[in-house]
Automatic annotation (TrEMBL), chains A, B:
It holds the Pfam family HTH_5. Residues 28-121 form the HTH arsR-type domain. The keyword Secreted does not apply. This is Metalloregulator ArsR/SmtB family transcription factor. Keywords: DNA-binding, Transcription, Transcription regulation. It comes from Paenibacillus sacheonensis.
Amino acid sequence: MEKQIMDMCDNTCDGTETDLSTVKQQMVDEHSAYELAELFKALSDPTRVKLIGALLVNELCVHDLSVLLEMGQSAISHQLRYLRNLRIVKRRKSGKTVYYSLDDSHIEQIFVLTLQHLKHE
Amino acid sequence: MEKQIMDMCDNTCDGTETDLSTVKQQMVDEHSAYELAELFKALSDPTRVKLIGALLVNELCVHDLSVLLEMGQSAISHQLRYLRNLRIVKRRKSGKTVYYSLDDSHIEQIFVLTLQHLKHE
DNA sequence: CTAACATATGAATACTTGCTCATATAATAA
DNA sequence: TTATTATATGAGCAAGTATTCATATGTTAG
């Protein structure tokens, strides 16, 4: 434990000439790191990926999404709320049914770009 | 429960004219969904984001990363192993010290693209 | 009004995950 | 050899997460 704190005070390990303060200035800041992680976390679950993948094709209601993914209505609804809180999807109500669609072209781009990368290799 | 299974057999809910089988054909398949989620999961943690953000600037050894992120050596090492297993980072050994660097230009692109999106809004 | 349908949501639970601690491995120095 | 430095790793735990179940809300039909 004491040793660890000592290490923290040192600025380089033996054999490195890297200027850490320069790296620290250039690297992504604390706040951005959390924002990035939060955004990627939304895409880090297969169910959410499938939901986004489906909404990429068409606006769909909860029931249809539940049929498409072969999952319970409640699970779908919970995940849609998650994505809605992050403004990744939006909803449109029409009578009894609620239609969901994508609400963020950024996510759409990232999603499609990454999908292409996975396919072409 | 019985009701749920009934729902699954229906192909549309009232008020929808969406052809679900057509959507299913176009949407991302099961396997791709899991691959996408796995990839994004690697980027869904602030520590891993910071690690990648630092290695985006420079190749760095474990100790320096531990200093930069102000975290214990063990935590850093565990996360580096995680990223290494997914071939996101690679390592180069030089004497006692091990230098890590990015190993996947895809991830790099996605990371930078997303970072830009977050900044410009 | 009541019944049926569509969606939302709180609680419970099984599972996952990120960190710490202690220790192991590996390389170098004395 | 032993001591020191750098990194790796297994176990354990606390916190988080995705699903299910039961139920609530809201909408339309009869």
